[in-house]
Design brief:
mainly beta, elongated, 8-stranded antiparallel beta sheet
């Protein structure tokens, strides 16, 4: 009988080849016996067949998605030139791939010219077409990448591989269009085309794709210096001067000096467009807020005007003030300003003196000076006029008396600072009355607190 190498009767295992002998064996050979050499030849041919045909499937290693696993019934002998053809259960991702063949690790590289260090790009091994790998120089190389769009040796992209539509491409060198069809740029229904319609002219045409007849053509003539738009010639500097119909000295019947005067400008000209002026203004103080780096002097002939030469206004609901700081001080500043209630204040480091519109000056610790000169003393919790008024009140105290009678000698008494008010005598007859006692009263005065005390 005759069997093909793909028949299951053929096995890569030499000892397993015990099928009946094929045609051509010597006469008398027993059909159930084969020579060892025949079994070995059958095994070798079967192994070669399995290697070169997609008879098995490679899977990704579960613990490493950058490794394919491929197993054969008999571990193959690996040397330069050996190739394997197999199916892949999953396409590859990008990276440095390896392949395990019957437990042995090998590097797996790409033939692609643009491959980074020979690493595989995404999808070079697919699931629709079998992968073919060839061994050389201690690694396997993928022979039939599924994403190659370039010549494997030169890197040139084949014309058939170029996509009809490209997005986001940049050209860093000259792009030449040699076909008769012009270069066309199309966006939102309007087409801009460039064409060289004669030896020394270039046409630029813009028209709507819905009606190619509606267009405006710009013709550039390289030798004659003539530009036409829609068939009409464009005026250039060559058309100026006497006799050419274009007087460049006038614009809208006015000389250039008219437009140099800023009072004739119809719009606000940006300062940045005036050479030198923007630089000069940059060193000026901004009207809307700035910091001066030099002193400010105001010299102004105000005459008899009652208006202020310098005024500050707070347009919001808050006080207005000016602060001063010596020696570049940023704290404990001196400040002068006006409160929202109309008081004018002077402050130094948080200590305030305030002037009320009624003429009263408030001192930092609660003291006050009235417009009439009277002062309020927090120490006495009262005005000075009241304090002085409390200290000048005088009155008589209670009545006292001194008995001038004496049984043991001379009577002597000092009634100062009391005031003698009267005397008492006995009731002797006629002019023989005797002095019995003196009556007196104390003198009392108030102190600055209003307390009464006896004088003397």
């Amino acid at each position: 009988m005759s069997i093909d190498i793909s028949d299951p009767l053929w096995t890569p295992n030499d000892a397993g080849n015990v099928a009946p002998v094929p045609d051509g064996m010597p006469t008398g050979t027993e059909s159930n016996k084969l020579y060892d050499i025949i079994r070995a030849e059958r095994g070798a041919m079967k192994r070669l067949y399995d290697n070169d045909h997609a008879t098995t499937t490679a899977t990704l290693l579960p613990t490493n998605p950058l490794v394919y696993v491929l197993n054969y019934e008999i571990p193959p002998t690996i040397n330069d030139g050996v190739s394997f053809k197999f199916w892949a259960a999953s396409p590859n991702s990008a990276g440095a791939f390896r392949i395990i063949i019957n437990g042995e690790y090998y590097d797996l590289k790409s033939y692609a010219v643009d491959a980074t260090n020979g690493n595989l790009s995404v999808g070079e091994i697919g699931t629709i077409v079998p992968a073919i790998i060839v061994y050389k120089n201690n690694r396997f190389v993928l022979e039939n990448s599924q994403v190659i769009n370039v010549d494997l040796l030169s890197g040139t992209i084949n014309d058939a591989r170029l996509p009809a539509t490209q997005t986001g491409k940049s050209f860093t060198s000259t792009v030449r269009v040699t076909a008769s069809t012009p270069l066309i740029l199309n966006d939102n229904g309007t087409t801009l085309s460039f064409a060289r319609n004669q030896e020394n002219s270039i046409d630029i045409a813009a028209f709507q794709t819905s009606d190619p007849t509606v267009k405006n053509r710009i013709d550039l003539n390289r030798t004659g210096g003539v530009v036409t738009v829609g068939g009409s010639r464009v005026l250039t500097l060559a058309d100026t001067g006497a006799g050419n119909g274009l007087n460049a000295d006038l614009l809208d019947d006015r000389h250039g000096s008219f437009y140099l005067a800023r009072e004739n400008h119809t719009g606000t000209q940006p300062v940045s467009t005036i050479t030198g002026l923007d630089t000069a203004l940059n060193v000026k103080v901004s009207k809307t807020g700035d910091t001066m780096s030099g002193g400010l002097g105001i010299v102004y002939n105000a005459g008899t005007s009652a208006g202020p030469m310098l005024s500050l206004r707070n347009a919001d609901n808050g006080q207005a003030m000016i602060s001063f700081g010596a020696t570049n001080r940023t704290t404990n500043l001196a400040t002068i300003g006006q409160r929202t209630n109309g008081d004018t204040f002077i402050a130094a480091g948080g200590t305030n003196w305030e002037y009320n519109p009624n003429g009263t000056l408030w001192l930092p610790s609660g003291g006050r000076i009235a417009g009439d000169g009277n002062t309020y003393w927090p120490y006495f919790n009262d005005w000075l006029s009241n304090v002085l008024a409390r200290s000048n009140r005088i009155r008589y105290g209670g009545i006292g008396w001194a008995d001038v009678r004496s049984t043991g000698g001379i009577f002597d008494t000092n009634l100062a600072p009391n005031v003698l008010c009267g005397v008492t005598t006995n009731n002797g007859p006629g002019d023989n009355r005797s002095l019995v006692a003196l009556f007196y009263r104390t003198i009392q005065q108030t102190d600055i607190w209003g307390n009464w005390y006896t004088v003397g």
